[in-house]
Amino acid sequence: MRSPAQAIGLAPRRRSAARGLPTGSCAAALLAALTACGAPEPPSPPSPSAALSVTSPAAPYTYADGARARRDADAQCGAGGVLTSINDRYEDATATWVFVEGCA
Questions:
Q1: pLDDT digits (tens, 9 = 90+) for 34-71
Q2: pTM assigned to the model
Q3: Is residue 80 part of a domain?
Q4: 90 is a domain residue
Q5: What would the DSSP string read from start to end of 50-103?
């Protein structure tokens, strides 16, 4: 005799004894999809030669002069401007702002 759940198609699926996976083509497709995907490659870091260092001999930059350094870097890079990131930094020893991703 069939249970009410089986009668309306809600019966639990059979499980494979070996792995505990649902049997049938669904399990095969799921397993194939999971094994076909590899780990995505991490983005490559910017090359060290791409960094743009900006100095101002007339009035040396300070840590608080990031906006002025950015405007000067945009002027040096031309129409594309400078690419900024959270890794841009001020180097106190040389009063230089370094934009690690360089020009666009």
A1: 565 555 555 444 444 489 999 998 899 999 999 999 99
A2: 0.52
A3: yes
A4: yes
A5: G-EEE--SSS---GGGHHHHHHHHHHHH-TT-BPP-TT-EEETTTTEEEETT-B
- In a shared domain, residues 29 and 68: no
Q: How many domains does the chain have?
A: 2
CA distance 51 to 100: 4
DSSP structure string for 10-65: -PPPPB-TTT-PBPSHHHHHHHHHHHHPPPPPPPPPPPGGG-EEE--SSS---GGG
If one counts every other C-beta atom within 10 angstroms of the C-beta of residue 30, the result is 12
Domain containing 23 equals 4-36
- Do 54 and 94 sit in the same domain of this protein? yes
Give the C-alpha separation, 74 to 54, whole Å. 10
Is residue 104 assigned to a domain?
A: no
Distance CA 73, CA 84 (A): 10
For residue 43, is it within any domain? no
